[in-house]
Write the structure tokens for this entry.
Amino acid sequence: MTKELLNKKDIERIISRIAHEIVERNKGAEGLCLVGIQRGGVHLAKRLSAKIWEIEAIKLPFGSLDISLYRDDINMNKPQPVLRKTDIPFDISGRRLILIDDVLFTGRSIRSAMDALMDMGRPSHIQLAVLVDRGHRELPIRADYVGKNIPTAKAENIEVCLEEEGLEDRVLIQTP
Amino acid sequence: MKKDLVSIKDLAEEEIRLILSTAFSFKDVLKRDIKKVPALRGKTMVNLFFEPSTRTRTSFELAQKRLSADVLNFSVPASSVVKGESLLDTIRTIQSYGADYIVLRHPCSGTPHFLSKIVSASVINAGDGINEHPTQALLDAFTIQEKKGTLEGLEVAIVGDIMHSRVARSNSLCLSALGAKVRFVGPPTLMPVHIPKGVKVFYNLQEGITGVDVIMSLRVQKERMDSAFFPSEREYFKLYGITFERLSRADSGAIVMHPGPMNRGIEISSEVADSDRAVILDQVTNGIAVRMAVLYLVGRDNA
């Protein structure tokens, strides 16, 4: 069974709110940078970047991060993920870095992402923004900016559809 | 990908393309300050070399270290093989160390195939006799793709001692699979009896490299020659050496490759080897990224 949790308008409002929250909490956009986790996070990071430009008229440095090489389940015979591009064309050291992902679940992707970032430099802060927090954390990780908290059962599946992937903007929950 | 990489024939065309695209990601890793990722942390890799090798062994070793694996190097002069140990016993010893990957170079064709059937570790062929050298072919394909954008429709001339060359054999399979047109150019005495399907043969260098996009010069493998295959090195150079004068026959943007080590003044002139047409050092750099990709992908189900 599939149910729609967020529609296009909802996602638009969330991006707008999180952009404002980021600017508010960091007292402006000076010294910030955005890094999206492949793939959903990259699209959301681009949207946030555009929104922050509207609010503060500052173009933030922007990067994409692939975490496949830092995963902790390599020995669990999962199918081989396709390596996507890691492209962070600026020095992250000393910056406030906003890490962006579509869904926060076990927290393991974020752990991998932070390890990957630490290999590239030493950001002064890392803050986490997610579109959906579905619970079931396995590590002590929480998001600083949450689009929507959605209580789920572990067997359920959250699907984030985005225009950049050729789909209609929405978030779906599939119950087996 | 399958458990082992023994031959290019083990790979479907999509798998070759997956290795190349993965290698492009690893090449980015090699440009960072910290050129290392934890992808294969805790894996044990054994490099077993029964033949002299500098670049292939060091390239594998560096690739393994960049993936955070633990590396063990066996080379024959320093191992118990010289004390009379059989291959099988050496392998069993290595298996007892809990090796997850074995990179094997051996003077006898077919050894990696034999080994892959008896061990549970992934076996990667780093050159077996005159048979195959799959990672060399993959890094050559990667380098051509990087320089030319694509392999589709390119004319590639492999020049020199084709008969003794595992590089020529693996390359003809790999490049053909990716849509390039392969030519073998060399003296009749150094041409193999069986020519792979689709490969054109030229005995005249000038004709063979006319209009080609890539010239792959091969080392004259004196150590594998048990009789006289050509009268003298001077004559060989005169007829088959890659010089600037001859290069003008090829496409104006043609690149020159060599798997190394080079015999300057026999198969290639120093001028050409040191010119900007030569991509020989790019091949070495790319070899690390491509071997990282192979080690990362081998034995894993395709997504």
Notes: Chain B has two domains: 8-133+284-297, 136-281. Chain B touches chain A at residues 1, 18, 21-22, 25-26, 28-29, 32-34, 36-40, 296-297, 300-303 (CB under 8 Å). Chain B has eleven helices and nine strands.
